[in-house]
Specification:
Blueprint lengths: L1 H15 L4 H17 L1 H18 L4 H12 L9 H16 L3 E7 L2 E13 L5 E4 L17 E2 L4 E9 L5 H9 L8 E5 L5 H10 L4 E5 L9 E2 L28 H4 L7 E4 L1 H8 L28 E12 L2 E8 L4 E11 L11 H19 L6 E8 L7 H9 L1 H7 E6 L9 E5 L4 H8 L12 H9 L14 H7 L4 E6 L13 H8 L4 H19 L7 H15 L10 H29 L5 H13 L35 H12 L3 H26 L7
Helix pairs in contact: 1-2, 3-17, 4-10, 10-17, 11-15, 18-19, 19-20, 19-22, 21-22
Amino acid sequence: MRSFSHLKSSITRSRHLLLPFSVLAFFFLLYTVYNSLTSKTASLTYATSSHTLFLSLSTSANASISHDLRSLTLRPHVAGTPGAASTASFVISRLHSEGLRTFSRQYSPLLSFPSHSSLSLHHSNGSLIAPLSLSEPADPNGILVPPYHAYSPSGKTLAPAVYVNLGREEDFQTLDGLSVSVNGCVVLVRKGGGYRGGVVARAAERGAKAVLISGGSDGGVERGTVILGGPGDPLTPGWGAIGSDAERLQVAAEEVRRRFPTIPSMPVAAVTAAEILRTLGGPPMPHKWKEGLVGTAGGVGPGPALVNFTYAEEKKIAEIQDIFSLIRGRGEPDRYIILGNHRDAWTYGAVDPHSGTATLLEIARRFGVMLRSGWRPRRTIILCSWDAEEFGMIGSTEWVEENLDNLHSKAVVYLNVDCAVQGVGFNAATTPQLDKLLIDITKKVKDPDVEGKTVYDTWLSANGGIRIERLARADSDFTGFLHYAGIPSLDMYYGNEFAGYHTALDSFNWMETQGDPLFHRHLAIAEIWGLLAIRLADDVILPFDYQSYASLLEEHVHALRDFVDEELSLESIHAAIKDLHSAASDAFTEGQKLELQHSSGDYATVRIRALNDRLMLAERSFLQEEGLDGRRWFRHLLYSPPEDYESKLSFFTSIADAISRSKRYKGSKERLAICHQIWLVARAIRRVSQVLRGDQLFGG
């Protein structure tokens, strides 16, 4: 830019001096040649300067993040309640203040709230021993929504209790070994056994009447959803819940009823669970089961005391609001880099989700400054604030379902942050073509906890090597983008576990005193997130690495061998991966050549666009249009969550489902089902290769 301004002033002076036209032509030719020779430098300088500018805007960022987090956590704001509306207004105001074009979209899904609940202990003859508290010790004034499980059905029972540790399959098998049945009983478990909906479903399969899930010893009680079968509004599977008059399934419809547990459940405080445990007789409790329990315990039950359990649910159509800010791309406005975080919370939400919300607002602040300085991304960037995630990723899922065709053809990537900071240590989960890019970015961001180190340095040393999780889970807003729409996705956060998850302890005070007092980890996530967005928005060739994807699939196949009979051949997948290696290598070489051409002044726009589209669309080839067997909403053959909540396989989901079913229904039919899924995966991998090659319809 500086060279051009000097040339322009020279030409102006030339006019004033009435120089001959030939001199003007000479200067114009000189500038043209110079611009051609330096276009690569200009392109690199633009990209580098945008990274540098973004990182330079860290002054006062910690204070800004802290201020936003405090404002977001002043009061509870469960989706569909008045508190949620005020939080939405705050986010909209902040995005507007940064000069960003901001929009909102309303949906009207079916939400679930508690109407009435009670719990008491009784003698075997039915007489009362004592009422039991359902309040949360950490919320003594009762400011928050009472602890409950969203979509738990109403129900009541008077039955003996049985303690089942974490409620896992192995725990129920331990009870079988003790000749203890939960049939007709109230099952008591402590949290930590995986998805609470899965815990309830396992108990229901064994004839339990109700489930109580105990909180930790810190006084918190964990709220949450127990919905089954996938995310989104249960009444509008596959389409958006737009308005009160939207097309909806009936609540009594079989497809809807399968989404709800068949028995009621409630979360309870550890002290309440301890009162029940003290009444249990039966076989002695296994020693390992006593870890983490409050008070003393004897047997596992059942009884002899009875638990009187009552829960009444209120389902209602409620309005939720998604919020978007749009930064339109200068060159490819129809290609979307999407960043998202949810805004609703069960309590105050300092960790979940507003450590992520405050981080998103910090990115918005920096992008606003950059836009005012003249930066504009090559591709469009969309910042998203989702609603009703806690009920089952409803806000993001409804938007994906409503806009599926557009997203299929235009969405490059989805970058998710939910609980940005819940402890120490960087963690990430991605689809594999994003691994290399993420690693590169973490090398540019200062570590928040170790002076003189980068995030990459401490990430590497903490794990004995870089460990990146795969997104074969459905617990945040990447779910609709990856598992339903096949869009490359990423999720990242600091810390592994947060004891106050979904409890009254998730407050600004915890974050300020324990979680991240200086807000340095928030800052690190903001910088990684923002730099990822800039690279994906501005790189001439999308920084997707399918060679590493192919290598990871090889690792998956080797691991799969431990889960299938030796007689079952995996050669079809091996051959497909070999072909993918070749196609990915060709795509990489093509990208290098196109970048070189672009840098030399031959912009090759059409060919660059075509390659980028192939890189963007390749992930869609892992989708099965009709959905996974018996679970039509989940469509990603590799990285959807498995049907069995306790499956040890976090990849090749359709094969994992077939393996789980074969264990339950042993026979030749189930063996053939596994073979079929192996072939489906092999064909999907070959489709990816075909997409990367583009025009090779007939092989070769």
